Amino acid sequence: MASITFNCTIQEGIIPHDLRPALASGLARVCTSILGGAPDDLSVNFIEIPHGYGFRGGELSTTSAVRGEIPPGCEQTTRVQLMQEIQDMWMELTGCTTHELVVSARDRREQ
Fold first, then answer.
1. Residues 74-104: pLDDT tens digits?
2. SS3 of 107, please?
3. Do 66 and 101 contact (CB within 8 A), yes or no?
């Protein structure tokens, strides 16, 4: 089972299917460079909101949410670096702006 999981909620038509593997690879690269581990420790899921079902400010939404669950105990400075590098990578690959992206990284709940 992966120790890091990212659920990427995206709007239909905003993130092309052929770009998603590059985004998943980018998430793996950023996570392993900052948190350690192997790319196989990471699981990425894309959740697509159908066109016309997501709105922001009364307009059709173009916003993506990249929500991560990382191993518990990550220091705040490391967490901030992780989220900043994820944001930079995502914006570079997709061309989105900071107003079109929400990145979060919470501690994975131990079971």
1. 999 999 999 999 999 999 999 999 999 999 9
2. strand
3. yes
